[in-house]
Amino acid sequence: MSNYIKDAEEQFNQALEHLAKDLKNLRTNRANASLVEDVRVQAYGSSMELKGTATITTPDARTIQIEPWDKNLVKDIEKALMASGLGITPKVAGTVIHLNLPPMTEENRKELVKIIGQKAETARISVRTAREAVREQIMKDEKAKTISEDERFKFLEELDKAVSVANDKVEKLAKEKEADVMVI
User: Fold this and answer.
1) Cα–Cα dist 125/81, whole Å
2) What's the number of domains the chain is made of?
3) Residue 133: CB atoms within 10 Å
4) Same domain, 130 and 91
5) Which domain holds residue 13?
6) Is the Cβ–Cβ distance between 130 and 163 less than 8 Å?
7) Are 27 and 87 in contact (CB under 8 A)?
8) pLDDT in tens, the chain (184 residues)
């Protein structure tokens, strides 16, 4: 495999990792710790991720339970959850914070499917952008006579196959998340 294709696949994988992380943070019909683990909390004079300050569990399908390691952070975590834009009001019971997820409506599900589609399209755009950069480099190298015309055709064919594989992975990630969201 050529360096052109390795570079392209590296960029494709970055786009896929970014999409997977974005989709992980979208709410489904079940409670999931990943919804809140990246929420930024002001603790010890700096901004930290919630997963670095507390234990996050899901005792049932509709509840996320957060137990800070330092009991003095309860108010800071509660404040961060309120400001996070989740749309869920935290309930504090002593040193434990509970987030009760309301059932999703059909309208919410359809809106999330649209958002998933937008995120998938952003990933496809990243793949196309990376493809074009590599394609231009191949053409430039052919003009500079560092690769032959046959090599150019071979590299472009390999690049097209790699793009196809990356787009299939984007589609698979999006379909899996849509199926997750649409489950009642």
Assistant:
1) 32
2) 2
3) 12
4) no
5) 3-24+105-182
6) no
7) no
8) 578 888 889 999 999 999 988 887 776 667 777 788 888 888 888 888 888 888 888 888 788 899 998 888 888 888 888 887 777 788 988 889 998 887 778 887 888 888 899 999 999 999 999 999 999 999 999 898 888 889 889 999 999 999 999 999 999 999 998 888 777 6
Prediction pTM value? 0.71
Q: Do 129 and 177 sit in the same domain of this protein?
A: yes
Is the same domain home to 14 and 53?
Answer: no
157 in the same domain as 88: no
Eight-class DSSP state of 66? E
Structure tokens at 20: 């997977």
Total residues found in the chain within this entry: 184
Asked whether residue 20 falls in the same domain as residue 110, the answer is yes
29 SS3 class: coil
Same domain, 109 and 178: yes
